[in-house]
Amino acid sequence: MTEQTGISKREANKARKRTEIVRVASGMFLEQGYAATTMSAIADTVGGSKATLWAHFASKEELFAAVVDMHVEAFAKDVEEVLTGQTFSVPALRRACLRFIDCLLRANSVLLYRLVVSEGERFPEIKETFYARGPAKLRCAIADFFATRFDAEEARKLTQLTVSAVTGYRSDVLLRPDPVDPAQHEAFVDNLLSHSVWPAEQHVA
């Protein structure tokens, strides 16, 4: 057993190997696409026997889920950092929206989004995996934030509107021929919040 972590050397090596497999698979999925990336190619790139890869992941779908988890974990941590422990206020929502946009427009987030959109029809399982492990969890965090001020139904509606507005902005930015700078992100969020009509006091929890 290792003194600091309480796990055996064998378990530590196994965890490191799994992390390496996920890292390699992530690069291949994002660069080549889901269909073009095979378990054999991943095993060859990682090195070692194919049996080692299959011992960690029983299918390509399972490995893709681990890749999504890796990206979503970092994404969710950044977004939830500005939501956790926060009570609803417009300034707090502004900070959260700006962080959300920043995370959505990171290179790996864009590549993963494009992968799911482009191959999701052929492979609906990757769309389901991505949504369950990513957007669905994030929606829950945002809904919890709104629920600190509004009742459950209003929190759900506000979450839908906020997520739709921000992800729609992300799509608009990706289609533009010229780069968009942080000042434009701030202008969008300020415009969104200034034109939002918050629920009447009788709907407040």
**Global shape:** elongated
Spell the H/E element sequence: HHHHHHHHHH
Structural class: mainly alpha
Helix content: over 70%
On the 0-100 scale, what is the average pLDDT? 88
Top-tier CATH class of the largest domain: Mainly Alpha
Please name the fourth-level CATH homologous superfamily of the largest domain: Tetracycline Repressor, domain 2
**How many domains in all?**
2
Q: What fold name stands as the CATH topology of the largest domain?
A: Tetracycline Repressor, domain 2
How many distinct helices? 10
Beta-strand residue fraction: under 5%
Instruction: Report the radius of gyration as a whole number of Å.
Output: 20 Å
In angstroms, what separates the terminal alpha carbons? 50 Å
Major beta sheet, specifics? none
Given as residue ranges, the uncertain stretches (5+ residues, pLDDT < 50) are 201-205
Explain this structure.
The chain is mainly alpha-helical and 205 residues long. It has two domains: 1-58, Orthogonal Bundle (Arc Repressor Mutant, subunit A), CATH 1.10.10; 60-203, Orthogonal Bundle (Tetracycline Repressor, domain 2). Helices cover 72% and strands 0% of the residues. It is built from ten helices and no strands. The chain has helices at residues 9-32, 39-46, 50-56, 60-81, 90-104, 107-119, 124-133, 135-146, 152-175, 182-194. Helix 4 runs parallel beside helix 7 (124-133) and helix 5 (90-104) packs across helix 10 (182-194). The longest helix is centred in the N-terminal third of the chain and has 24 residues, at 9-32. It is elongated. Residues 201-205 have low confidence and may be disordered.
